[in-house]
């Protein structure tokens, strides 16, 4: 391991940004807070994107590692201890300076601080605590802070950090305990879920305390924007079904705000990792998982409705909602002027915003297809599934093959970000199943994984 | 029948004054209309009148909208009138006249099947969206005298929409945001409320003199933006769809 002492701020920022870039979340949403007038900063509920990098991802927070020194040797990670890379650390003062000066110029919405593990989880987290304390109390920074909680940190420290941060996240890293054992030998599932549970309980207690004390109490808020997590997709042989089952349990049992999925990117060579294939990261798969994730959170879908044992992976050509609708044609067509909100939500081409507008607008009169267009319904997808005043828009047949053929002619069923990728489209060797032989995971174990651990 | 068309300047005071005059005159969009100076298309069967603009008329209309149509409708109308669009004033007048004919005038913005209500709704949404984007895309640079200075080229007159946001965010800073398209400057003095200066010429010389440390932080930021991108995922068209070119021209990280 190389430790270089004399690095400039420019070099340090390069190294520690480069090491942090694989972290997914750059959201600054979930909390609304006005500045108190004495310091600097505020937060907006929906979050604000400040820029977009060349890969099209949003830059909202200053996403850096505290240090890329790490005692762990996770096989997929660029900072694993056995990699020979330049190691460096920020000091709390440097973190404050960067955050404050970037924030003043409106470059960023706040700080996203993660870290490699130097010496021990407790030692690392106490350094992070020192940096955040200074930022909040000396610099009087009132913007957004997202901090990673490192599994294995003692409870008291997580409590104290939670009062300084807006969002906390513990990385799931990989969807199943089996994969974790294989690729992240120093981490265990139990270790990861413990701080998650801790934060969840503390958030609930804190809400009750605040409710009891009332406005006059003016109590500090603990992790007001809730917690999130992320999993790497495509490094291990889990099916999409297993992954969204895990996500569903996390939402239900741990009250998570978001689960992020990160398409696996080959940065290390290891016999336990998928072989280098020359393909890019599985972006289409990641995209489908995000689509399904939205269906779980906003559209009242259950994981079991979207996929099942016999059909464990998402359709390459169709988004999960269209796919579901085609398999459940018995629910369609839906009469837009009468159907309730939840039924409207299930129609492809109608989002939760347009569903809400439909319910509002039809009080004023009968809706026609022209009105739906103005409301924001994507008619080229919805037209097979809806009627207005008992009439279809065009004489179409309610048959799976017919609709599928027509939907595929509409180009935007696969978004630009993935349509242009060379490797994608209908490949026999798409993602998951192809790599299965590389792992020795018993089928029975895979199936019950989600329920077993989270149960 | 002859339609009376009122001609006014493209400003809030101008358009509200025109609405004041038109409101007294006609009951429907067939009878009265508003045209913006510079976007006039003379038509048959129209009688054109110049509006005498005054603050008093404008305040009266503002009060009337808030009282009879509700604050939410005022919010939509206000945003729609900041748009870069030559029929916005006529659309707002049309929507306000339509509100007379429905049972609850406060609900006028839900009557999207009315073409002019829909127009107002669309304009308001697009201006509010643009303003929201600028809360993120504004880039300040620190001048020699410590003032944070920014230049933007928005399509709509968004300065007043983002003023409260930045005042709340940087209460203890002196900052200025200049709108190059509409020649307006938003000025905030530490600890005070913001003000909007119209038709102001900036001292070009002064705003080019940046502080000593400015270059350092700009370089660090540019470096950060380049480094944070993942090579294997690069996708310039996705980047452009999130942040179109006309926003990029005023942002330091897109400087070549």
TrEMBL record, chain A:
Keyword Flavoprotein included in the entry's annotation: no
CDD domains: Radical_SAM
One Pfam family matching this protein: HHH_3
Entry-linked InterPro entries: Aldolase_TIM, DNA_rSAM_put, Endo/Exo/Phosphatase_dom_1, rSAM, rSAM_sf, RuvA_2-like
Keywords noted in UniProt: Iron, Iron-sulfur, Metal-binding, S-adenosyl-L-methionine
Recorded superkingdom: Bacteria
One annotated GO molecular function: metal ion binding
Alphabetical list of NCBIfam families matching this protein: rSAM_link_UDG (TIGR03916)
Protein name from the UniProt record: Putative DNA modification/repair radical SAM protein
Species the sequence originates in: Hespellia stercorisuis DSM 15480
Automatic annotation (TrEMBL), chain B:
Protein origin, superkingdom: Bacteria
DUF4130 domain mapped to chain residues: 102-253
InterPro entries: DNA_repair_put, DUF4130
A UniProt-annotated Pfam family: DUF4130
Name listed for the protein in its UniProt record: Probable DNA metabolism protein
Species this chain originates from: Hespellia stercorisuis DSM 15480
């Amino acid at each position: 391991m190389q430790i270089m002492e004399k690095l400039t701020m420019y070099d340090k920022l390069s190294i520690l940004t480069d090491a942090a870039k694989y972290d997914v979340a750059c959201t600054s949403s979930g909390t609304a807070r006005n500045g108190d007038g004495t310091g600097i900063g505020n937060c907006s509920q929906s979050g604000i994107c400040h820029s977009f990098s060349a890969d099209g991802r949003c830059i909202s927070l200053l996403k850096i590692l505290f240090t890329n020194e790490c005692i762990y040797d996770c096989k997929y990670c660029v900072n694993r201890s056995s990699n020979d890379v330049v190691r460096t650390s920020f000091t709390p003062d440097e973190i404050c300076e960067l955050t404050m000066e970037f924030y003043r110029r409106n470059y960023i919405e706040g700080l996203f601080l993660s870290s490699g593990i130097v010496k021990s989880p407790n030692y690392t987290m106490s350094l992070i605590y020192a940096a955040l304390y200074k930022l909040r109390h000396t610099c009087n920074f009132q913007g957004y802070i997202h901090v990673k909680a490192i599994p294995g940190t003692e409870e008291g420290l997580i409590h104290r950090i939670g009062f300084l941060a807006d969002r906390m996240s513990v990385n799931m890293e990989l969807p199943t305990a089996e994969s974790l054992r294989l690729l992240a030998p120093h981490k265990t599932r139990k270790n990861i879920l413990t701080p998650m549970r801790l934060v969840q309980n503390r958030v609930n207690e804190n809400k009750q305390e605040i409710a009891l004390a009332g406005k006059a109490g003016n109590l500090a808020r603990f992790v007001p924007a809730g917690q999130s997590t992320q999993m790497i997709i495509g490094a291990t042989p889990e099916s999409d079904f297993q992954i969204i089952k895990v996500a569903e349990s996390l939402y239900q049992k741990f009250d998570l705000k978001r689960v992020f999925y990160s398409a696996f990117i080959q940065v290390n060579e290891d016999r336990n990792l998928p072989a280098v294939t020359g393909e890019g990261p599985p972006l289409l798969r990641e995209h489908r998982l995000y689509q399904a994730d939205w269906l779980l959170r906003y559209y009242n879908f259950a994981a079991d409705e979207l996929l099942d044992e016999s059909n464990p992976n998402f359709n390459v050509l169709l988004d999960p909602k269209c796919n579901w609708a085609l398999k459940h044609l018995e629910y369609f067509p839906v009469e837009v002027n009468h159907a309730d909100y939840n039924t409207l939500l299930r129609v492809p081409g109608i989002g939760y915003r347009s569903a809400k507008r439909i319910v509002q607008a039809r009080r004023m009169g009968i809706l026609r297809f022209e009105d739906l267009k103005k409301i924001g319904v994507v008619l080229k997808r919805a037209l097979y599934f809806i009627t207005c005043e008992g009439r279809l828009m065009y004489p179409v047949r309610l048959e799976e093959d017919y609709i599928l053929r027509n939907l595929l002619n509409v180009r935007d069923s696969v978004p630009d970000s993935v349509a242009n990728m060379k490797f994608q489209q209908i490949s026999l060797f798409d993602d998951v199943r192809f790599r299965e032989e590389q792992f020795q995971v018993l089928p029975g174990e895979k199936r019950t994984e989600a329920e077993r651990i989270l149960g | 029948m002859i339609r009376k068309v009122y001609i006014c300047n493209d400003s809030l005071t101008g358009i509200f004054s025109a609405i004041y005059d038109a409101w007294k005159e006609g009951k429907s969009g067939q009878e009265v209309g508003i045209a913006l100076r510079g976007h006039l298309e003379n038509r048959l069967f129209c009688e054109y009148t110049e509006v005498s603009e005054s603050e008093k008329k404008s305040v009266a209309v503002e009060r009337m909208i808030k009282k009879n149509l509700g604050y939410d409708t005022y919010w939509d109308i206000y945003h729609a009138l900041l748009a870069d669009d030559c029929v916005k004033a006529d659309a707002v007048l049309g929507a306000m006249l339509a509100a007379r004919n429905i049972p609850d005038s406060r609900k006028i913005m839900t009557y999207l099947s009315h073409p002019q209500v829909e127009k107002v709704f669309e304009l308001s949404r697009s201006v509010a969206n643009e303003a929201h984007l600028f809360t993120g895309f504004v880039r300040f640079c620190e001048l020699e005298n410590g003032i944070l200075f920014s230049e933007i080229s928005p399509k709509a007159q968004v300065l007043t929409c983002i003023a409260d946001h930045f005042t709340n965010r940087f209460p203890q800073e002196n900052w200025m945001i200049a709108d190059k398209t509409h020649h307006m400057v938003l000025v905030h003095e530490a600890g005070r409320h913001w003000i909007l200066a119209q038709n102001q010429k900036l001292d070009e010389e002064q705003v080019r003199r940046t502080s000593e440390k400015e270059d350092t932080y700009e370089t660090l930021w540019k470096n950060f933006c380049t480094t944070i991108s993942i090579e294997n995922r690069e996708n310039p068209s996705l980047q452009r769809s999130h942040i179109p070119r006309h926003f990029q021209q005023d942002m330091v990280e897109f400087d070549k």
